[in-house]
Amino acid sequence: NAGVTQTPKFQVLKTGQSMTLQCAQDMNHNSMYWYRQDPGMGLRLIYYSASEGTTDKGEVPNGYNVSRLNKREFSLRLESAAPSQTSVYFCASSTVATNEKLFFGSGTQLSVL
Amino acid sequence: QKEVEQDPGPLSVPEGAIVSLNCTYSNSAFQYFMWYRQYSRKGPELLMYTYSSGNKEDGRFTAQVDKSSKYISLFIRDSQPSDSATYLCAIDSGAGSYQLTFGKGTKLSVIP
C-alpha cells in the first residue's frame, strides 16, 4: 500500500521557470491538500480540495495553482517560480469524515535560484 | 499572537527519560487536537488524536488536553532513540474547516 506518492523528490529551478508537482493517493480519500514547510514557519496550507471537482485557497495560495485531476490525483503548479518559493512541499489526503487525520507524502524539496 | 504556540527546542534527553512536549493555543473554538511525528526528510505522520478535553494513552505516549487553560501536552515514557524526531501539534475547530493549524514543531533527540 503506497499511501500518498509525490514526484519529484527534489527539484532545482531558476527564477521564472515553471513546474508541476504531482501527488497521487491510493487510499480512496476524498480530500487532498498541499502544504509547504519552511524553517521557523511550520506547515502552511497552500490549497486544498475537499472533494473531486472542488479546490479552495489555504493560508498561502499566492503564486500557485492546483488541479484536482481525479479522485486520486492533485497537482500543484508554479507558473513563474520565485526564490521565496524555495521550500519543502507536502501533499496530504484525508477522508471527509475525519479531515483532521492527514496522511502525508514524503515531500518534494524545491530550490529556486 | 499566533493561534498555536510551540517551543521549537531543540530538546535533548537521555534514553529512558520522560519527555513532555507542549503547545498553547488561543482560540477556544478548537475541538480537535493532534500530535504528528516527523522524522528527518520524511512527511509528518499522525501519532495521537484527541477530541475535546482529557487524556488519551497509546503505549508509551499520552496526549493531554486542558481546554480551560488552552494547553495541550504529549508525554513520552521510557523514551527511545527511535523517538528522535520533530513533534508537531495540530489543532482544528472541526465543522469541516479542512484547515488545521500547526505548531512550528519541537525537535527531540533521545541520546542512547
Can you lay out the helices and strands and say which pair or pack?
The complex is a heterodimer of chains A (113) and B (112).
Chain A: E1 4-7, E2 10-13, E3 19-25, E4 31-38, E5 42-49, E6 56-57, E7 64-68, E8 74-78, E9 87-94, E10 103-104, E11 108-112
Chain B: E1 4-6, E2 11-14, E3 19-25, E4 32-38, E5 45-51, E6 54-58, E7 61-66, E8 71-76, E9 85-92, E10 101-102, E11 106-111
Q: Please, could you describe this protein's structure?
A:
The complex is a heterodimer of chains A (113) and B (112). With 113 residues, chain A is mainly beta. Helices cover 0% and strands 51% of the residues of chain A. Chain A starts with a strand and ends with a strand. Chain B is mainly β and 112 residues long. Helix content of chain B is 0%, strand content 54%. Chain B has strands at residues 4-6, 11-14, 19-25, 32-38, 45-51, 54-58, 61-66, 71-76, 85-92, 101-102, 106-111. In chain B, the strands form two sheets. In chain B, strands 2, 4, 5, 9, 10 and 11 form a six-stranded mixed sheet that branches. Chain B starts with a strand and ends with a strand. The chains are: A mainly beta (113), B mainly beta (112). The interface between A and B is medium-sized, with 26 and 24 residues.
What proportion strand of chain A?
Answer: over 45%
String of helices and strands of chain B: EEEEEEEEEEE
How many DSSP-defined strands of chain B? 11
Mean pLDDT of chain B: 92
Give the biggest beta sheet of chain B: 6 strands, mixed
Shape of chain A: globular
SSE order of chain A: EEEEEEEEEEE
> Count the helices of chain A. How many?
0
Essential attributes:
heterodimer, B: 112 residues, 6-stranded mixed β-sheet, 5-stranded antiparallel β-sheet, 0% helix, globular
Describe the structure in brief.
The complex is a heterodimer of chains A (113) and B (112). Chain A has 113 residues and is an all-beta fold. Chain A has strands spanning 4-7, 10-13, 19-25, 31-38, 42-49, 56-57, 64-68, 74-78, 87-94, 103-104, 108-112.
